[in-house]
Amino acid sequence: xxxxxxxxxxxxAYTSLATVYDDWMKHLDYPAWWHYxxxxxxxxxxxxxxxxxxxxxxxxxxxxxxAHLITxxxxxxxxxxxxxxxLRGNLAVSFMLLDMRQxxxxxxxxxxxxxxxxxxxxxxxxxELKAFLRGAYSLLKPSGxxxxxxxxxxxxxxxxxxxxxxxxxxxxxxxxxxxVIDTLITHRLTGFVKSHPTAWTRFDEVHRQTxxxxxxxxxxxxxTGFTRxxxxxxxxxxxxxxxxxxxxxxxxx
Length: 253
Fold this sequence. Notes:
Layout: H1 5-12, H2 21-24, H3 30-40, E1 48-52, H4 58-63, E2 69-74, H5 77-86, E3 93-97, E4 110-115, H6 126-139, E5 140-151, H7 153-161, E6 164-168, E7 172-181, E8 184-196, E9 199-210, H8 214-224, E10 228-233, E11 246-252
Parallel strand pairs: 1-2, 1-4, 2-3, 4-5
Antiparallel strand pairs: 5-11, 6-7, 7-8, 8-9, 10-11
């Protein structure tokens, strides 16, 4: 049986993009991101951590500074290759090609599971979200903690107000178009990478995401069995609001 369109999209996104991802996303402050998670949720050192959607390993590198034992996973082999190169020699980090919708029950247990950088928004519907929550719950130790973030309402409004983005650089550039239909967010990316002083190589990728309201996420987590949940306006301890571009969620087993 062939793969569904949804499966193909999830596994072909972040292929060619992997080679230029760090350059295009260098505005993200990963040290501040990890400091926020560590401080807000009082994360002790030396924990076992599963990172889902680790990408090129930028947050992984920050997590590793606190003596954690990390299993860093992603659905993109190309992104994992970049992460492995970046963290080569770090014996506290192991890498795994992993689909968050099908977390192996024998992989854990872990003290903490982290899915950052809106990885959860790549789940296509509530059933896939439920599958992830069940898998994460089963892999956590008693009193374990699941941390993940999602797009906030202001991010969705931003996509609607400004659906096209461009970046022109000396070695790479992109044209990025975003279409929002109800809760479905479709990113169509055309990128160019300089392959020769007078030649550019083009690539095209489609990224599909789903907008999940934070209140519904907390309820689904509680229905899964998590005993306590919380959501915050990202980088704060304030409740989410209409101006939140990113929302941080925490679920305790």
